[in-house]
């Protein structure tokens, strides 16, 4: 099993941090500055009928980890993976693009290994 730990937060200390982590698996964790996460999630278009689906709903409604810092489970990994695959990453800054690529790898790994993906914000 590959180590997918990565830190996209260094240099942004004091700013909000978002952590994507495979539950009970320390070698599957991404630490990111909230700005990188915002850029990626805002690049995902609304779903069918113009509504937010999956992880995007609590993100846009500022609930769960986006509101109170509580750990949130990504309930529908295949949906999140397809949303990420639909993103046009050409507008991302290089560091945001690196985070985006690492996030896609982590989501694919979570699905392949049937692991729970958690998100926390501090």
Q: What labels would you give this structure?
A:
122 residues, alpha+beta, 5-stranded mixed β-sheet, 5 helices, globular, Barstar (barnase inhibitor) domain-containing protein
What does this structure look like?
The chain is an alpha+beta fold and 122 residues long. Helices cover 39% and strands 17% of the residues. It is built from five helices and five strands, in the order βββαααβααβ. It has helices at residues 34-42, 56-61, 65-68, 77-85, 94-112; strands spanning 6-8, 17-22, 29-33, 72-73, 117-121. Strands 1-3-2-5-4 form a five-stranded mixed sheet. Helix 1 packs across helix 5 (94-112) and helix 4 (77-85) runs antiparallel to helix 5 (94-112). The protein is globular and about 40 Å long. It comes from Hymenobacter jeongseonensis. This is Barstar (barnase inhibitor) domain-containing protein.
SSE blueprint:
Blueprint: E1 6-8, E2 17-22, E3 29-33, H1 34-42, H2 56-61, H3 65-68, E4 72-73, H4 77-85, H5 94-112, E5 117-121
Parallel strand pairs: 1-3
Antiparallel strand pairs: 2-3, 2-5, 4-5
Helix pairs in contact: 1-5, 4-5
Give the gist of this structure.
By secondary structure, this protein is an alpha+beta fold. The chain contains five helices and five strands. A five-stranded mixed β-sheet has the order 1-3-2-5-4.
Low-confidence stretches: none
- Main sheet, how many strands, which sense, barrel? 5 strands, mixed
Structural class based on helices, strands and sheet pairing: alpha+beta
Number of helices: 5
List the strand order in the largest sheet: 1-3-2-5-4
Beta strand count? 5
